[in-house]
Write a structure and sequence with these properties.
Helix content: under 10%
Number of domains: 2
Radius of gyration: 28 Å
Number of strands: 22
Strand order of the largest sheet: 15-14-20-21-22-19-16
Order of helices and strands: EEHEEEEEEEEEEEEEEEEEHEEHE
Number of helices: 3
Strand content: 35-45%
Shape: flat
Length: 361
């Protein structure tokens, strides 16, 4: 039996249609030789792919770029001179798993956020991120027990048409539409922003195998403070929103450097210096703004939401009809429970991810 000796990996990370990469220009070409005490050759590609996934978000969820295609071509060489080839296309995101999830956790749920209780600004349509790469499922929006809207997501559903046969109750038992997944779609088509109707306070996601995921929505009408929406890339690699209803505090931190100058002047009669001229000259002045936001009172699910927010590399705040990049400053989230903390709320500190003095040239 032939023994594996070496392998060459070619890796492409790109946007657009699946398979639309330049076969002659891989992002990576990696050669590995099997170690004497091993039977396989393993390539870890997640960090390689992340370097080329260009996250872009300007407030328009439909145009956001949060993922890329990752295509691979592996050539295995054996000791008898034979080779074998393995190829494939993967969806690359900035998702991650926890240690408890074990190796290579997969997307198995249509709901792409950790919390099933949502606190949302009243008068704004609720948005939840779902994954369209699974089998068909329904998303139903309710106001209490009244069904407001229902949509179908997941793999594509093709309608049945009957051109020549007349179906009656006597000659038909079951009609089924075929369900397929179009592989040559764009990478960002796998994540769908589902917007609910106004006043919806419940969402039920029903899969075709009978599973149900129910989300509760608490609509908050804040009168004292101005609510702010923060958007971040969560552990599933998608855009998630969290509303901050509590008090907002802002700060500006200025830094500067100094150097000494000689201010002595001379003329025909005397030597002097002007007391209005500084001998300590300021340069390299920079200013960074920071802010503190508060969630107001939330459920225990927000322990996980806040943790993912602090772990996120991409965070934005919606202000004045624009979005601005911000960076969480906190490094610790203290898990809270209703048993001991009664009313739960979180205070989070952020820095704006740019200098207040425009340094873009």
């Amino acid at each position: 039996m032939a023994t594996l000796q070496s392998a060459i990996l070619k890796l492409w990370v790109y946007d657009g249609l699946a398979g639309s990469y330049n076969v002659n220009a891989p992002n990576y070409t990696i050669t590995k030789t099997k170690l004497p005490n091993e039977n396989d050759i393993i390539f870890e590609i997640s960090e390689l792919a992340r370097d080329y996934i260009n996250i872009q978000f300007d407030g328009d969820y439909t145009l956001a770029n949060i993922s890329s295609w990752v295509s691979y071509f592996v050539t295995y060489t054996f000791d008898d001179g034979t080779t074998s080839i393995k190829t494939g296309d993967l969806l690359g995101t900035h998702a991650y798993g926890y240690f408890e999830d074990e190796i290579n956790p997969q997307l198995t749920s249509p709901l792409q956020q950790s919390n099933t209780c949502i606190y949302w600004k009243k008068g704004e349509p609720v948005r939840i991120p779902v994954y369209s790469g699974l089998t068909l499922y329904d998303v139903e929006w309710y106001e209490d027990d009244e069904l407001l809207d229902k949509s179908v997501y997941g793999t594509n559903l093709f309608p049945i048409t009957a051109d020549t046969t007349k179906y009656t109750a006597d000659n038909v038992s079951t009609l089924r539409a075929s369900s397929t997944h179009i592989e040559n779609q764009y990478e960002n088509d796998y994540t769908v922003s589902v917007w609910g109707p106004l006043n919806a306070n419940r969402v039920i996601i029903k899969t075709r195998d009978g599973q149900e995921i129910e989300l509760t929505i608490t609509l908050v009408e804040e009168c004292k403070n101005t609510p702010y929406k923060v958007t971040f890339i969560n552990k599933f690699g998608v855009l998630q929103d969290i509303w901050m209803f509590g008090r907002r505090k802002e700060r500006a931190n200025a830094s500067r450097e100094f150097f000494k100058i000689n201010t002595i002047e001379t003329n025909e009669t005397t030597t002097f210096y002007k007391t209005s001229r500084a001998t300590d000259r300021i340069h390299n002045v920079t200013t960074n703004k920071s802010l503190t936001l508060n969630t107001s009172f939330v459920c225990e699910d927000y322990n996980q939401v806040v943790q993912e927010l602090l772990l996120s590399e991409y965070v934005w705040i919606h202000e004045n009809n624009k979005v601005y990049p911000i960076v969480p400053k906190d490094n610790v989230v203290e898990y809270k429970t209703h048993l001991y903390d009664k009313l739960l709320n979180y205070t989070i500190n952020f820095d704006y991810a740019y200098s207040e003095i425009n340094l873009v040239r």
